[in-house]
Amino acid sequence: MGHDEREGAGTWEDTAGSAAWSDEDNEELTFAQDEERLPWLESGDEDETASGIDAGRVAMIALMALAALAVIVGGVWWITNRTVTGGEAPQGSIIAAPEEPYKSRPDNPGGKEFEGTGDTSFAVGEGETREGRLAETSEPETPAASPTPRETEAAPSIAAVSSDDAEEVAQANEGVGVQVGAYSNTSDAEAGWRTLTRQTEVLNGVRHRVVRGRADIGIVYRLQAIASDRAAADRLCADLRADGLACQVKP
């Protein structure tokens, strides 16, 4: 039995060794499978590293840009600071005015001469003064016809005024007026006076006059009652207002 046990133990060891060898083989297969790359499981870190910005290329572009800028600045400086050859350099002084007149009338102006040239209106427009004179006419002056005897006789009749009318005109112009209305014509003014005398007894026995005047609406005829003086005119206007009539004292 001891031999069997040893054989059995050797078998177990062998068996265990075989099992152990089998486990190692399995691990190697597992490692081999892990080393295989699967595209859909790979991360993008390596791609990002591969596609990163090239610092050397950026530095080269920056140097080229600086060189181009230096060339442009140098060209501008050379153009603005170069010396002029073959002539005088500008001094920047003020241009002197010529001694001859700036504007002069030509000896032969020529051109078209328009109608009205030389008239007084053009001379006055240029600051000249012309003495006024009457226009000359070729026809002789005709003396005015003397009035006929009939016209001479009629003239005094127009100017003559009767003594009664003169007295009425003088009385109408005397005194202080109390205006009681304004009308467009004398007939309406006289009709207005008759109406007022029927409305109030204050105007009974009071003289009146119609005075032609001008207002904003045009020519008007003012109807005025005549008082002897300013005090009488004020009393007359107060009495008319007491009867409900409008009035205004006119000097």
From TrEMBL:
Residues 100-115, 127-136 have a biased composition (Basic and acidic residues). One of its GO terms (molecular function) is peptidoglycan binding. Residues 1-50, 85-157 are annotated as: Disordered. The chain crosses the membrane at residues 58-79. Gene3D superfamilies: Sporulation related repeat. InterPro entries: SPOR-like_dom, SPOR-like_sf. It comes from the Bacteria. Keywords: Membrane, Transmembrane, Transmembrane helix. Residues 170-251 form the SPOR domain. This is SPOR domain-containing protein.
